[in-house]
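@channel sequence for tomorrow's demo:
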Amino acid sequence: MLIHTRGIVFRSLKYGETSVIADIFTEEKGLRSFIAGSVRKAKSSMSYGLFQPMTVVDLIGYFRDDLDHLNRLKEMRAAEVYSAIPFDIRRGAVALFMAEICRKSIHAGDENPELFEFLLDNLRWLDTTKQPLANLHLHFLLHLPAYLGFQPQYEQDGEVFFDLKEGVFSPVPPLHTLYLEPQQAMPLLDLLHTPLEQCHEIALTRPERKALLQGLLQFYQLHVPGFVEVNTPDILEMVME
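structure tokens (generated this afternoon):
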């Protein structure tokens, strides 16, 4: 089946001498794996640069019903041209982190146009904002689960604990040890209530961000089947202020 759709590249791997295999989250068919032949040749009709993580593309591809088989790209071009992400080490690091989280959280064939728009909005903001970036990855981690089926819930305002196992902000600690104390849970609740455009206003130190990131990644490990160790936080820590 030949389909024309937008997509967001999560990962690409070199294959053979000139080909590429790419995981692309498409607007029409969800996450699919594609093979693109001869794209690493000098005169290829598809630029190899299009296969960088979190590039937004417009593609035409042959889609197969069997999710275990590769789909084949026929054409692909840029759908969004970034002005800052490829040239700013901090923005690039956040984009890589988002790509890794998406690749480990979103499963093949999950058709989700609302999720596609969420990712697109985050990428556009990452590329254009003049505000500090240090909280963007935490805000992203807190709001992505709304599109994956495990959005954190809160019972009431005031001082709370965050139950990582149940995904609930609660005024009392749970009876197990998988939770965050109020000093960590309260900033997360603030970020959950704060629009993307204002997330930089939440005051956090570097050690606080690191601790919150570790807690959120544990939350993902508890709720996303097969979620394994994430590598990009080390890059974020090196480049963020």
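heads up for whoever presents: Residues 85-239 form a domain with the de novo design (two linked rop proteins) fold (CATH 1.20.1440).
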